[in-house]
C-alpha cells in the first residue's frame, strides 16, 4: 500500500497519476469501493486509488461507522491500493466536538496507515517527497 498525504489542493492525485500507469487504476473519490465495484475493478485487472480518504472518514463517522476497522479490512483485501488524504491536523483545534473527533480519528488512521504502508509520500506544490 502507498499512502500520499499533503495539504488541500497541493496536487496529490495529479502527482500520483504522473507516477503510475493510470490505465491500471480506478480512482474512488471520497469513498471506498463496495463489493460490486471492487469485483468489477478486479475483473478489469485494475488496482484501487482512494482519493480524499479524509472525506470518507468524516462521512463514516457521521453515519456511526467505524472507519478504523473498515479501512484496515479494505486494505487486507487490497494491499496494492494507493490512499490519498489531506493533512487536517494542523492549525487551530476546532471548537465543535464532532470536528475535533473527526480530526483526531483521521490523524490516528493516517498514523496507522503510515506504519503499514510500503511507501509514504508527502506532496507540497505538486512535488512529492518520499518520507518512508
TrEMBL record:
A matching Pfam family: CobU
Show which residues constitute the signal peptide. Answer: none
**Top-rank taxon:** Bacteria
Q: Which InterPro entries match?
A: CobU/CobP, P-loop_NTPase
Molecular functions (GO terms)? adenosylcobinamide kinase activity; nucleotide binding
Q: Which GO terms describe its biological process?
A: cobalamin biosynthetic process
**Protein name stated in the entry:** Uncharacterized protein
Q: In which organism is this protein found?
A: Defluviitalea raffinosedens
Which lineage ranks, top first, belong to the organism behind this chain?
Bacteria, Bacillati, Bacillota, Clostridia, Lachnospirales
